[in-house]
């Protein structure tokens, strides 16, 4: 069984009610739910939340909310993996065995096409996980920092004189979704162990990437999303 698991905590501080706040006319959580449904590869699309309000919205949008997330997994400091493991264990104990799962965040740039492409890559590579990534807009090897004396210095001093076209490309997590082989995920005891496993990237354009952690991010995402939608028409 393949399951989409959408984490949606109710206590967002920086953007109150983030998951159900209207983004381009729809609750933000509508985008991952619709992308998962449109992908046509999931046996179930599940939202894990501690909020009755979010649960009600999610159900109306076509997702399942078969359990309420426990309080100990719903505070400001709970990382994602324990939340996903809780959902997988709950389903494994009561339903059919979960072979593959995809954690999908509330992000308007998640697409059904990318979800399917990442799943195909997961199978082709027999990977532990597949993560969408994109390039940095400027090479990280020319990054600088201010040291304790207030002096500006290169982070990568040995690369400071290398031509930018000769520097290795660097990527960052797109912050949209993670595909996992569920059994491999459940056997992993900590994040550092998981990072050592065979992970593969799905490289996507920067025009499809915007993290949303604060109001400024939200406003930038709306501007980018408008261009993103226009490009698809």
- Name the structural class: alpha/beta
CATH architectural category: Alpha-Beta Complex
Count the beta strands: 11
Low-confidence segments, given as residue ranges, are none
Q: What is the succession of H and E elements?
A: EEEHEHHEHEEEEEHHEH
Assess the beta-strand content as a share of residues.
15-25%
What is the overall shape? Answer: globular
How many helix segments?
7
Give the number of domains. Answer: 1
CATH superfamily caption: Spore Coat Polysaccharide Biosynthesis Protein SpsA, Chain A
Largest sheet: 7 strands, mixed
Give the C-alpha Rg: 19 Å
User: What is the percent of helical residues?
Assistant: 25-40%
Whole-number average pLDDT? Answer: 93
Description:
By secondary structure, the protein is α/β, with parallel strands linked by helices. The chain has one domain (2-132, 174-232): Spore Coat Polysaccharide Biosynthesis Protein SpsA, Chain A, CATH 3.90.550. It has helices at 30-39, 52-60, 80-94, 112-125, 182-187, 191-196, 215-232; strands at 2-7, 22-23, 26-27, 44-48, 100-104, 129-135, 144-146, 152-154, 171-173, 177-181, 199-203. A hairpin with a 5-residue loop joins β7 (144-146) and β8. It starts with a strand and ends with a helix.
Provide a quick synopsis of the model:
The protein is an alpha/beta fold. It contains 7 helices and 11 strands. Helices cover 33% and strands 20% of the residues.
